[in-house]
Amino acid sequence: MSHRPPAWRSPLRGPWLTSVFGLILLFGIPVLFVTGLLSYAAYNPDLSPVNDKTPDKGLLGFYLFSWPTHPVWLYRVTQGAHVTLGVVLVPVLLAKLWSVVPKLFERPPVRSLGHGLERLSLLALVGGGLFEFVTGVLNVQLEYVFPGSFYPLHFYGAWIFMGAFAVHVALRFPRMVRALRGRDLRAELRTPVSRTRPEPPDETGLVSPDPAPPTMSRRGALAMVGTGSAALLVVTAGQSLDGPLRNTALLAPHGREPGRGPNGFQINKTAAAVGIRARDIGPGWRLVVRGPGREVVLTREQVLRLPRHGAALPIACVEGWSTPDQRWEGVRLADLAGLVGLGGRPPGVLVESLQRHGSFRSVVLRDNQVRDPRSLLALRVNGADLSPDHGYPARVIVPNAPGVHNTKWVARLSFGRSV
């Protein structure tokens, strides 16, 4: 008589099915990790403390580089892929955990020092994987408030998880290859429930010694997981794509579509939500432009009289969503640097917002971002003045930058300052 719970007696469990799910994750998880690292690099955290949400990263920031402004769609693609793939892999991760759940509760829990170390790596793998997926989905969907900041928790969790993942792959890869070669995928996809049999017992302990009668074939299990992932793809991918799929993005994050018209594209924080009052952005608004030893104060009318330029750029958010290209009109950041004697090759700039609370009230942009001719202090979009929720009276728009670095309700631009 087996001591396993009835739910653990499935005849489908075994090295082959576990290895199929593992193979999918073997390709998907490194892509998630790399796109996540690129997302972190896009914030230019090595540039200034105000940009760095993970200040104690130490050697984990070894790969950071100056984030480029070309191509303008890079952050939109990498972050959209990161979030969409993370959601799509959820059914595969859950299926993989289901396939190995008897191993997680085996007795005795530790049989030797080597077995104990393997169990410890497994705990880091399973716990780290669940932590990364759960916190990522919560951040995207709920704008959640977790104990501590999302950025360091997700960043450190990713490194812990990937360390355990690398150890697990090194230990299990040969066994996975043998298991995949032991059964023919095409044959399994043709096998109905009536001819489904348990895998032969082996040293993995995944095969139940007392399997229950099959109620689903392995073909059915793979189809169920694949259908779940495909459904999540359909209701998620459109948030970062143009075209018909945008209408199917039912799981798009909490960004809001503020009606129709020139300003009718997605935002993630309203003026009211960050404490912007009508008098803050009324006739009394002033733009302060600072440089070494010089300061210029401009009204909006004076800013409007400066040479204006246009740029077609999207907004791409860390939560995975992005807008189509919007047509922005405003004053080049490089021209504003020239007002305080920093023409030619202007330095980076500290951008400060009027918002009273919430994250990213100020950011620092690199010199390459300031010098790009498409980097604007935008005053209008799609032929109309900015709405209050889109940053009226003036906002920054920079190619290939995370949305939170396109600061809204700009009050001060301090060129050559990093804090």
Explain this structure.
With 419 residues, this protein is α+β, with helices and mostly antiparallel strands. The chain has 2 domains: 6-248, no CATH class; 272-415, Sulfite Oxidase, Chain A, domain 2. It contains 10 helices and 10 strands. The protein has helices at 15-42, 74-88, 90-104, 113-142, 150-182, 185-189, 218-234, 300-304, 333-339, 367-371, and strands spanning 287-291, 294-298, 309-313, 326-332, 349-353, 362-365, 376-381, 384-385, 395-397, 410-415. The strands form 2 sheets. Strands 2-1-10-5-6 form a 5-stranded mixed β-sheet. Helix 1 (15-42) packs antiparallel against helix 2 (74-88), helix 1 (15-42) runs antiparallel to helix 5 (150-182) and helix 4 packs across helix 5 (150-182). Keywords: Membrane, Transmembrane, Transmembrane helix. This is Oxidoreductase molybdopterin-binding domain-containing protein.
Give a quick precis of the structure:
By secondary structure, the protein is of the alpha+beta class.
Helix and strand arrangement:
Elements: H1 15-42, H2 74-88, H3 90-104, H4 113-142, H5 150-182, H6 185-189, H7 218-234, E1 287-291, E2 294-298, H8 300-304, E3 309-313, E4 326-332, H9 333-339, E5 349-353, E6 362-365, H10 367-371, E7 376-381, E8 384-385, E9 395-397, E10 410-415
Parallel strand pairs: 1-10
Antiparallel strand pairs: 1-2, 3-4, 4-7, 5-6, 5-10, 7-8, 7-9
Helix pairs in contact: 1-2, 1-3, 1-5, 2-7, 3-4, 3-7, 4-5
